[in-house]
TrEMBL record:
Protein name: DNA invertase Pin-like site-specific DNA recombinase
Any Pfam family matching the protein: Resolvase
Domain of life, source organism: Bacteria
SUPFAM superfamilies: Resolvase-like
InterPro entries associated with the record: Resolv_N (IPR006119), Resolvase-like_N_sf (IPR036162), SSR_resolvase (IPR050639)
Keywords per UniProt: DNA recombination, DNA-binding
Length: 185
């Protein structure tokens, strides 16, 4: 983020918010709090320019990235990508080269993610072939009572009728943890 602060200072851009996404860029825009915060600030007219270090910070799905670019462009908000020095708007007008580059760079980010995923799965398959156990060691699971005690707040919310997704958000735990608690109840 420090490098983007320097870019903002060099371009005399006042920083309104710094958004650091903690969820995968492969998720849908609706599921990414950082993107939703960005869009909310944009729709309110609170920002005029978005600075990102690279296109993949906006997402790893070409369609999702292009949706963000299109909405921000229609709102008159320029996106500056530091690693390529490109900007979607120049003097308030669309930069067609930047639009083209965004499409290519978003697709490269998607391909990069797919390649990484394939390598990981291939490595796991090879480890299994060599007899390596993937995942939690046998016998390392917690007993039902211990697990439910550890996640008492989750169990309480589920018993109160809250959905799995809302319980996960409220209790700040993974959805799979909530599902496991629900299965044990």
């Amino acid at each position: 983020m420090e490098d983007l602060r320097a870019v903002a200072q060099s371009q005399a851009v006042q920083v309104v918010a710094e958004i650091a996404e903690k969820i995968s860029g492969a998720k849908r825009n609706q599921d990414r709090e950082g993107i939703q915060q960005l869009l909310e600030l944009s729709r309110r007219g609170a920002i005029q320019k978005v600075l990102v270090s690279e296109v993949s910070r906006l997402g790893r799905s070409t369609v999702e990235v292009l949706q963000i670019v299109e909405e921000l462009t229609q709102l008159g908000i320029s996106i500056y990508v530091q690693n390529f020095g490109i900007e979607t708007l120049k003097n308030g007008k669309r930069n067609p080269v930047a639009q083209f580059m965004f499409t290519l760079l978003a697709e490269f980010a998607r391909l990069e993610r797919e390649t990484l995923r394939e390598r990981i799965l291939s490595g796991m398959d090879e480890a299994r072939r060599q007899g390596v156990t993937i995942g939690r060691p046998v016998g390392a699971t917690e007993e039902k009572a211990v697990f439910l005690k550890k996640y008492a707040a989750v169990a309480r919310q589920l018993r109160a009728g809250l959905s799995v997704r809302n319980t996960a958000k409220l209790c700040d735990v993974a959805i799979n943890t909530v599902r496991k608690v629900k299965a044990l109840l």
